[in-house]
Specification:
Layout (H helix, E strand, L loop, with lengths): L9 E5 L2 E4 L3 E5 L4 H13 L2 E3 L8 E5 L4 E4 L3 H12 L1
Parallel strand pairs: 4-6
Antiparallel strand pairs: 1-2, 3-5, 5-6
Length: 87
């Protein structure tokens, strides 16, 4: 039997959607203009993942693969979940 690597922790980003916590680079507020441009650039390049389930975007998650994930959960809430996963 082969030994598997360390278990990858999942970060709950709301409504049954999860991201591998170790792949998250940043969790940001979507309001500032640079974040809106980031979202639009990702959409045009096919790197945008919308996990809002049709709700208002309240956080943008950037991964190490340069994907941009939209979440309807507040950035602060996701940050707290991320900190709990880390500890």
């Amino acid at each position: 039997m082969q030994r598997q690597g360390p278990k990858q922790g999942l970060l709950n980003i709301g409504f049954g959607n999860f991201v591998i916590a170790s792949r998250v680079v940043s969790i940001v507020n979507p309001s500032p203009a640079p974040m809106r441009r980031l979202r639009e650039d990702a959409r045009q390049e096919g790197r945008l993942i919308d996990a809002t389930q049709g709700r208002k975007t309240r956080a943008i998650i950037i991964t190490d693969s340069n994907h941009v994930i939209l979440s309807a959960i507040q950035a602060e809430t996701i940050g707290q979940r991320f900190s709990q996963e880390d500890g």
